[in-house]
């Protein structure tokens, strides 16, 4: 059985009390803190950068999972590594040299990952899997929290897991599969069965009055 991880997306947190929100979800059973970086260029929204990553770092011992939705990619990687990020993922379409960006993330001591928008082909993985620690599938179009899960992404999750299982057979190395967008208690079980092991949830967690209860319920649904 894989290790199942819930990654609250702080995009839906109360930004006026961000440190406290990060501490609260960490104490409530989260496994990662998902940190959405948007630049109003690659995606139509503007959020937070390395300064905010550094500011929340003392509020949690959990890994900070930085999801870059920025273009260009490379020049911001060292800044996030210095700010305390542990995992950095980016969209291949936003990088001129995907292999180089992946290497750069690892050279800065972080785990690396590629993010796939709903329409992006998984073929991008074919020649770079050795440099990838996590694959992030977007199940909404990037830019905003609170959108509806795109049902076709269930099949894409199965296809991604099959690719990663094949790689594991050849190399023995497990690559995590994360999903992001519209994850709720009513689809998380099916996603786990499809082979997802890491679940980003923004509105489902921060929109719930009891973070511990909602994270526990997510784990319960996964285990069913
Ligand atoms: C969207 C972000 C997501 C977002 C998910 O571009 O990457 O991480 O916060 O929010 P929910 O869980 O509300 O769909
Ligand atoms: Zn995200």
TrEMBL record:
List the Pfam families: Ribul_P_3_epim (PF00834)
**E.C. no:** 5.1.3.1
CDD domains (UniProt xref) = RPE
Pathway membership: Carbohydrate degradation
Q: Its Gene Ontology biological processes? A: pentose catabolic process; pentose-phosphate shunt; reductive pentose-phosphate cycle
Keywords attached to this entry? Calvin cycle, Carbohydrate metabolism, Cobalt, Isomerase, Manganese, Metal-binding, Zinc
Question: What InterPro entries does the record tag this protein with?
Answer: Aldolase_TIM, Ribul_P_3_epim, Ribul_P_3_epim-like, RibuloseP-bd_barrel
Would you say which domain of life the source belongs to? Bacteria
Kindly state which reaction or reactions the protein catalyses: D-ribulose 5-phosphate = D-xylulose 5-phosphate
Q: Which residues bind a divalent metal cation?
A: 34, 36, 67, 180
Q: Which cofactor does it need?
A: Mn(2+); Zn(2+); a divalent metal cation; Fe(2+)
Give a Gene Ontology cellular component term annotated to this protein. Answer: cytoplasm
Kindly give the Gene3D superfamilies that the UniProt entry links to this protein: Aldolase class I
Q: Which residues bind substrate?
A: 9, 67, 143-146, 180-182, 202-203
- Catalytic residues? 36, 180
Cofactor mode of binding and number, as noted: Binds 1 divalent metal cation per subunit.
Q: Please provide, alphabetically and separated by semicolons, the GO molecular function terms listed in this UniProt record.
A: D-ribulose-phosphate 3-epimerase activity; metal ion binding
Per the similarity annotation, which family is this?
A: Belongs to the ribulose-phosphate 3-epimerase family.
What function is annotated for this protein? Catalyzes the reversible epimerization of D-ribulose 5-phosphate to D-xylulose 5-phosphate.
Spell out the protein name for this chain.
Answer: Ribulose-phosphate 3-epimerase
Q: Which organism is it from?
A: Amantichitinum ursilacus
Its encoding gene is what?
Answer: rpe
């Amino acid at each position: 059985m894989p290790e199942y991880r819930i990654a609250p997306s702080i995009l839906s947190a109360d930004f006026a009390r961000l440190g406290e929100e990060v501490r609260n979800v960490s104490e409530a059973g989260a496994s990662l803190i998902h940190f959405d970086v948007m630049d109003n260029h690659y995606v139509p929204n503007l959020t937070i950068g390395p300064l905010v990553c550094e500011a929340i770092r003392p509020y949690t011992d959990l890994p900070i999972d930085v999801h870059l939705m920025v273009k260009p990619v490379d020049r911001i990687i060292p800044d996030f590594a210095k700010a305390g990020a542990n995992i950095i993922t980016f969209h291949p379409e936003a990088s001129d040299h995907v292999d180089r960006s992946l290497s750069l993330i690892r050279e800065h001591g972080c785990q690396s990952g590629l993010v796939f928008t709903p329409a992006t082909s998984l073929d991008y993985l074919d020649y770079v899997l050795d440099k990838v620690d996590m694959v992030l599938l977007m199940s909404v179009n990037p830019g905003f929290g609170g959108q509806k899960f795109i049902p076709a992404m269930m099949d894409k999750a199965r296809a991604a897991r099959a690719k990663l299982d094949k790689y594991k057979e050849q190399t023995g190395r497990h690559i995590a599969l994360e999903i992001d967008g519209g994850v709720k208690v009513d689809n998380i079980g099916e996603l786990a069965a499809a082979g997802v092991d890491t679940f980003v949830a923004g509105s489902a967690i921060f929109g719930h009055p009891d973070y511990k209860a909602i994270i526990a319920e997510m784990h319960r649904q996964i285990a069913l």
